[in-house]
Amino acid sequence: MALMLMAVPRENRAVFRWGAILATLGSLVLALFVFAKFEPNTDLTSINHGYAFVQTAEWIPALGISFHVGVDGVSVLLVLMAAIVAFAAACCASGIKAREKEFAILLLLMTGGILGAFMALDIFLMYFLHELALIPTFIMIGVWGRGENREFAAYKTTLYLSLGALLALVGLIMIYLHYETFNLPDIIHRIQADHGDLMTTGQQGLVFALLMFGLGILVGLWPFHTWAPLAYGAAPTATAMMHAGVIKKFGLFMLIRVALPILPDGAQQWLPVLAWLCLGNLLYCGLVAMRQKDLNGLISNSSVAHMGFVFLGIASMTFIGLTGSVMVMVAHGLLAALAFALSGHLHQQARTLDMDKLGGLLTVMPFWGTLLLMAVLAGCGLPGFANFAGEITVFFGAWKTIPLITGIAAWAALVIGAVYMLRAARQLLHGPRADDAPHTDDIPGWHKLPFIILLGALLLFGFAPKLLTNKIETASESLEHVVEMYKRK
Amino acid sequence: MIDQELKLTLAMGVLLLPLLAAVSIGLGARRWRGLSAGLSLGASVIAFLCSLILFIKFHGAPAAIVPAPDAGIQWLQLGEEFKVDFAALIDPLSLLMLLIVTTVGTLVQIFSLAYMRTDAGYSRYFAGLSLFLFSMIGIVLASNLLLLFIFWELVGVSSYLLISHWFEKPAAADAGKKAFITNRIGDFGFLLGILFVWQIHGTLDIIELAGMGAVTTTTGLLIFCGAVGKSAQFPLHVWLPDAMEGPTPVSALIHAATMVAAGVYMLCKLFFLFTADALVIISWVGGITALLAALMAIQQNDIKRILAYSTLSQLGYMVMAVGCAGPAASLFHLTTHAAFKALLFLGAGAVIYSCHHEQDIWKLGGLRKKLPITFRAFVIGALALTGFPLMSGFWSKDAILAQAYATNQPLFYLGVIVALLTAFYMMRCVLVAFDGDSRSDAANDAKESPAEMTLPLILLSALSIGLGWSWFGLKVFLMNPVIWLGSKMNGAVPLNQISPTADLAAIIAGTVASLAGLALGWVIYKGAKEDPLPSKLGAMARGMRDKFYFDEIYAWLNKWTQERLSHYADWFDRWIIAGLGVRGTSGAVDLTGCLLRLVQSGNLQTYALLLALGLLVMLAFFLF
Question: How many other C-beta atoms are found inside a 10 Å radius of the C-beta of residue A409?
Fold first, then answer.
């Protein structure tokens, strides 16, 4: 029952900010508990094999939709990451001065939705909860956003993401039409049975394309990424943290969870395309990031670029690559949240994020500066941070199947990443301070907490990536099955 | 068994103590300057003692080479193929290197106590040094390629942090960035090389790889790219001179004695991976670097930059030696070079400290009487570097030249020319900076540095003289047919198997070149008030002074490739956004209005319900 509470925190009482912080703290504690106590069901005959903490309740029996939740080795990590980011986001929401109640409610709705989406075992529920988390994003950008562009940003983001979600929905419904159920373990069970119950190759190709592009838009797959810099540039800090960190990962999660196991033939047709598109993210968006003058523009482009590693891992279709993808998802979630939190603080202080106008901030804001330097180094894949562990794993996984693309990706990771990341450090932190530079204060007292938690998690998983891979290993059977299905021909 | 445990405890102590120091300074000790310095220095001293015990106890016969047992911490493992253990590999090679790193590390920290005393970032500086020591020791001990790569990157970042220590200075901040990115280009090749090795042999463990022998030439050269970046070989040598923007003790430790030597160390350690073809290319890259850098050094006026180019040149020597199938000779020179180059840099540091940060040798002069200890130390270092008979550099340079004579004669002659140039520019540096009259107020007021600074100078002077002598043991240690990692050093020519002819040729040519260079330098620069070379050599001298325009060429290349691409990408991106923007503006207002209305109703349940209803309607539509 604890899990149900976590899935949908309905504390709609008007305790505003503290309520939100406490609620997300509750989620975090529960997520830690789930993480620690996670023991997947080892009963091979059970339909819930591989999952833990399974709960089921009837929801819309007429359509075979049920409230069916549980976690496996992959989702337990995403849930933990989401809970950490949500807590940090709630702490960083203190900059919101108007309509605090609505903001808090939307933030909690978002948290509950996305946590639930990661745990859902019913495809429709998964989709529905994700929408529940996504919609507040638009509202938050439109209402609490910054800059003159915010209405346009909200509009464009809504348009893009709704389109993506709709495409994916069409694909999901086609899956439903074939299997007549939305129950994911049930469908996979039927595929794994001796005479695999698969859709025809043509159907699979169509559905996979719908899911790949639909979900790809949600993640910012090149060339459908242009909403991201706009949205994150206008979004309030907490929203950018939640969306870039957590909600964006949903598309990737669903791709791994639903598309790959159900549509092995479709994957075979489309993954080579995905492999080349991921270079669009890694190279193109990396190059774009090199030219950004605005810190948020840089972070959002780099965040889109980093999604390329996840796509690369998926496209490699090896166990190592898929594991790496999940690791990058967790690492990037934490890092994106940290980066947006830092830029949020800077914006609050200096009222600008134009890197040409700022400089020498390491002297005035030592704590903020040190953290930004750490985030920058994590972003260019320095060992010791979780990102490196994930990226290197992806490279090793992808090297065996798509070496050329992996090689180019390594250039993007090692060189292009270093160029734009260090440029940010050079312009913001180093150098002399301009005479007319705006006054900025460091992060005070307890406000440091969310930053420390995010950085701590990044370092912890960076030094001991086994904490991540141990959990993923318990799901290795399903991942390896995916790979085998793919190679079967 | 007891030995194994002792080995493990000591090795982990050496590795983790500096990290511990860095972390505790970062977490709070930074508020107390003395405590920070004490922690860092203490960790370094203990690490030195541990290394010394390790060396004395375990450097013995090759048969005693035992890899340290698995430290029990697995960093990462996925399936059977992808395993990264956190373990230390202890062989004569790493024991020697540990000793070098911790010795120089300790002396440099003692020197820094005084040199950095008035610096506002005192604690940050020592934290950086400790972090560097940790990463460097990690490279030395790494037992598999990925672990090596991890520490490789960490060394890169600590170097970045230390070069841009004075980050308010734009030049220092830029230099740090340049060093990091240039290194990253080399690391790109290194990573691809590691991936290839893994693909070919299916393992990353160095001991296992040693049993499997060479990989393809391409793979070997990709691995070599890592060394090209870290050891600043042509064509990625451009970052090292700029790195002189960092504090001088940092230049001594990182950019002379240890980090830049990591590339050479890696080549020696992974010698078995290289095919004969790869070795030929490696030796030529090293030779070209040695020659180019020596030429550039002749026309530099900044005392630190002269030493920086000389470092480049000597690193080229070491790489050349590896390419000539002589990892032992290379390692010998690495060791002596660590001592005399650290000495030279610290000597330069003492000069800079005494002369209020004046670094132009033409504005110094007359320091011989004012800084007697520094002067003597600097001269000893310079003589060792030029390969003056019986100094340590004489023996190691002789070993390299003999190696070249035996395997690749053109490189032997190139090496002799470099030796001559080296003697020439060092004579110039010493005469101009220390001899004659003071040419500025700063040089006039110079006073000898405090004991914290002179003590390391004296100790390093002793090492610079003695390291090459056989009673010191180093030469004997390396001369032994040291067969690292079992008998897998295919193609390597040990020092004691070089023919007497080659040895004789090397000794005679080396000595003559050194003496001739010194004499030439004496004739031209004794009593000189300004540099006579530009008028004599014209364009050639300008080219040397401007480093043969590598920086300009690279800036141009970067501008026309990566920058241009990035420009196009950005333009394209904006164009798409703008294109959509025109179409979307009219709709935007309406939609935001809608959104605002919805929020103002304040009733979210309604909204969620609407969403669910909408989806249901759509579902129904698709289904029936």
Answer: 27
Residue B174: in which H helix or E strand, if any? helix B170-201
Q: By the CB < 8 Å criterion, does B472 face chain A? A: no
Q: Strand (E) positions, B456-560? A: none
Q: How far apart are CA B144 and CA A55, in angstroms?
A: 45
Q: Residue ranges of chain B with pLDDT lower than 70?
A: 1-2, 4, 29, 59-74, 79-80, 470-496, 572-616, 618-624
- Tallying the residues shown for chain A, one arrives at 489
| CB interface of B with A, residues 43-82, below 8 Å | 74-79, 81-82
Taking CA atoms, A184 is separated from A68, A214, A257, A375, B546, in Å, by: 9, 19, 9, 37, 67
**CA A177: distance to chain centroid?**
29
Token digits of residue A58: 């009837």
Structural domain harbouring A135: 2-487
pLDDT per residue over B186-203, tens digit each?
A: 999 999 999 999 888 888
Q: Please state the domain count of chain A.
A: 1
Mutate to test the interface with B, among A123, A137, A152, A283 (most CBs of B within 10 A): A152
Contacts of A384 in chain B (CB under 8 A): 150, 154
Three-state DSSP class for residue B492: coil
- Which of A53, A26, A27, A28 has the alpha carbon at shortest distance from A39? A53
Cβ pair A54, A41 in contact under 8 A: yes
Q: Is A48 in contact with A165 (CB distance < 8 Å)? A: no
Considering only CB atoms, B184 lies closest to which of A170, A418, A425, namely: A418
Cβ distance A419 to B181 less than 8 Å, yes or no, reads yes
Contact between residue A251 and residue A126 where contact means Cβ atoms under 8 Å apart: no
Please write the tens of the pLDDT for every residue from B585-610.
445 545 555 555 554 554 555 555 66
Closest CA to B419 of B248, B571, B291: B291
- Run of H or E including B376: helix B372-386
Q: pTM of this prediction?
A: 0.86
Structure tokens given for B613: 């209803």
Q: Residue A49's Cα: distance from chain center in Å? A: 26
Residue whose pair of structure tokens reads 């939705």 in the numeric block: A113
Lookup: tokens for B224? 């070599």
- Cβ neighbours of residue B376 closer than 8 Å, sequence gap 6 or more: B461
